[in-house]
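ping. complex inputs:
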Amino acid sequence: MNKDNNMEQQILQCAEELFLEKGFSLVSTTDIAKKAGCNQALVHYYFRTKENLFQQIFQAKFTKFLYIFTTFDDSDEPFTTRLRKKIEAHFNLLIENRQIPFLIVNELILNEERRSALVKNIYNKNLEIYRRFDHELQEEIQKGNIRPISTLDLLINIVSMNIIIFFMLPLLESQFNFDDEEIAELLQQRKHEVVETIMCSLRPKNK
Amino acid sequence: MNKDNNMEQQILQCAEELFLEKGFSLVSTTDIAKKAGCNQALVHYYFRTKENLFQQIFQAKFTKFLYIFTTFDDSDEPFTTRLRKKIEAHFNLLIENRQIPFLIVNELILNEERRSALVKNIYNKNLEIYRRFDHELQEEIQKGNIRPISTLDLLINIVSMNIIIFFMLPLLESQFNFDDEEIAELLQQRKHEVVETIMCSLRPKNK
DNA sequence: ATTTTATTTAATAGAGTTATTAAATTGACT
DNA sequence: AGTCAATTTAATAACTCTATTAAATAAAAT
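pong. complex structure:
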């Protein structure tokens, strides 16, 4: 469509939209070609297989999903403030990429090979950042600023509460006829509530 | 297989297992027939269409998923005790039906018609129980026993934290080689942590 | 201007899908 | 044994899907 965008890019972009919306198996290369405005064979000419095309897109999305999650800024603000920001940043990323949770859950459950590939790709890469976060958290717990909780449980809690509203959006849109503005408002509220819930859940008990 | 189990039941049961494992579109009526040990046409003889067969199974699973969630016992135990039990009961249900979260998220996102059918079916049916829970919760908040939170947010928090581990199970099993015992242990720990997190997050702030 | 290379399309092989139809098999009842 | 209905199967129509191939068109290079 754009002058500098060649058809290869066009296909990639259309494939991305379709895969995000329906997942791997419900999108055909014919669908992609139709949306991109080219012949179906061209999709295979550029990407050879549908799996190839999907991999590129999925890898990118998954990395994005984890990236923000595996960074932790080094500013001298207190731990809880930085944690709060981290949760919000992750939620904001999802607002911009609402179908990511569906794609990840769907394809990671369904496809064993995809799982292996991803785990290999990610595990070591982010171990360092995880360890640093772990260290900081457990230190705060030692100081008595935070109730005891395993680092993994905390991370899982955050992710789960962050993603669930995006599973519910189709329901709210199509069944309860929320419009874009209402959805945007709802998401902001939900983000606030997640932060609130996590922060409250971390308050030490004895206090 | 059993004497009293006729082939119709056999097909239904095999279909259930396959649909739970792979979702609607990745299971063919041929797959079902093969697993049930009959001719593919027989699947259509009993259920006419694949959609029909799926609907029966999906409806049942979804009702199950919501049933325990829309009951609230009337014993004279304190609210928080009953809430704790409710969370555990929901989690226990998921332990027995591990693929339910995947099936629901997957098919509810992908199929608009299925959404409509379900919402109609469920909305009014469970409104009464929801209202009662809502009333009790807000009363506790008024009394200052619980920090202010919307009923819906609380329910969403519980569901999200309860289901997420079941999205992660395939990863733990196939990539980190957890055996059944380890998984069982992990699930118990996770259940405990969810209850803990929710309960901690509900403590009033001023106290 | 013509050869070479890159892009794009039409056509199609080959496999798999749902659903239907007619025929075969089984079992019950008279 | 013979009739009737229920169950099961083989065969197949009418798709759709991925991927490949050969041919056509466009762009670049000599």
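Chain B has a mean pLDDT of 90.
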